[in-house]
Design brief:
The chain is mainly alpha-helical and 354 residues long. It is built from eleven helices and no strands. Helix 7 packs antiparallel against helix 8 (233-243), helix 7 (189-227) packs antiparallel against helix 10 (268-295) and helix 9 runs antiparallel to helix 10. The two termini are 49 Å apart.
């Protein structure tokens, strides 16, 4: 005898439940989309807190209570940033303004030195377009000043929000991690706790190491440019330190800009060639001596993995996403490898126990 199908009331209840579930999902998706910028800021603040946590834990191990350890780390970071800005920004602004004012002169000098550049300019009419752009630059900057002011205050508000959130995350990080580990079944808590600790260690060691390497690059570039008497050494060194934070291509990008400025402003030999030789030698030292010693095993990944992680992170969150993606990918790789090794050990032990 065939079983009777569901009656009309049951089908109606199922339909209502499915519609309610779909509506709830759409509502949650709409809410998440509406606060996507805030979620990104929260994510960045959590990343900053995790990056600074190794320094906080080091102070805690030396018998300093966590609130005081967080205060010391935050104040040290603020003092360093303030001192750096006070030392760099005034001459940086002055030399950058001089560089912008002298740009047409340097372009003319570069044209006289390079016959190929003159040919390309004549072929594609670069000179007329560039001269027109330089003439219109002051008026363009004036019309965009209001928009720049709005973006600046928006960025300042975002920075303050991220700073406050990072402070709270740093204070409550152990409790938050405890809640995260406690939310999983007891049989998996040890593995989850180990994975979370690996993630924090990788992110912290990578970010601190990356900042140290960038500072070394900036100081070395400043010293070399000063010795070779290349103008605008300070803003160029600041640019080198900033671009060195960009994974894979950052160091080459900063070096290329410095070489172009040297070619346009100083004699080809020995100064411009000296700049080229410095960056070639320094990048080899950074890749094979400085970075391995500073990073140690912070990012144990193949080059293609680093590149793909940086590309994906950069596509999602720009430069910040590229910086975040690499240590996160390295931590995920280690967690996966450890999990695979644990499963192999259990598979070997199981027949022996039988």
């Amino acid at each position: 005898m065939p079983r009777p199908g569901p009656d009309l009331r049951t089908v109606f209840r199922w339909g209502v439940a499915a519609a309610a579930g779909a509506g709830a999902l759409l509502l949650v998706g709409w809410a998440v989309y509406g606060v996507r910028d805030l979620l990104v800021q929260v994510f960045i603040a959590m990343f900053v807190a995790i990056s600074l946590d190794p320094a906080v834990r080091w102070l805690v191990r030396h018998r300093i209570r966590r609130p005081w350890a967080v205060t010391i780390v935050i104040l040290s970071a603020l003092v360093f940033v303030a001192g750096f800005l006070l030392a760099v920004v005034p001459p940086l602004v002055q030399q950058a303004q001089t560089l912008a004012d002298d740009a047409p002169h340097y372009l003319d000098q570069l044209r006289r030195q390079s016959e190929r550049l003159r040919g390309l300019e004549d072929q594609f009419h670069f000179r007329a377009k560039l001269d027109a752009w330089l003439r219109d630059l002051p008026a363009t900057l004036g019309t965009q000043a209001l928009g720049f002011g709005r973006r600046f205050f928006g960025a300042l508000a975002s920075f303050l929000l991220i700073f406050v959130l990072s402070l709270y995350f740093m204070l409550d990080l152990p409790r938050l991690l405890g809640l995260l580990v406690g939310a999983v079944p007891e049989s998996r808590r040890e593995r989850v706790s180990d994975g979370v600790n690996v993630l924090i260690d990788k992110i912290g060691s990578y970010m601190i190491g990356n900042i140290v390497i960038s500072l070394i690059a900036g100081v070395a570039a400043f010293a070399a440019l000063e010795i070779l008497r290349v103008p605008f050494a300070l803003p160029l060194a600041f640019l080198v330190a900033f671009t060195d934070l960009i994974p894979m291509i950052g160091a080459t990008l900063g070096a290329a800009i410095c070489v172009l400025v040297a070619l346009a402003s100083v004699p080809l030999w020995p100064q411009a060639i000296g700049v080229v030789l410095f960056f070639v030698v320094y990048q080899q030292l950074e890749n094979y001596l400085i970075a391995p010693r500073v990073m140690r095993n912070a990012v144990d990944m193949p080059a293609i993995g680093v590149l793909l992680a940086a590309l994906v992170g950069g596509q999602i969150l720009g430069l910040v996403g590229a910086l975040m993606a690499i240590p996160v990918a390295a931590a995920i790789k280690i967690i996966y490898v450890r999990g695979r090794e644990a499963r192999r050990e259990r598979a070997v032990e199981a027949p022996a126990g039988e």
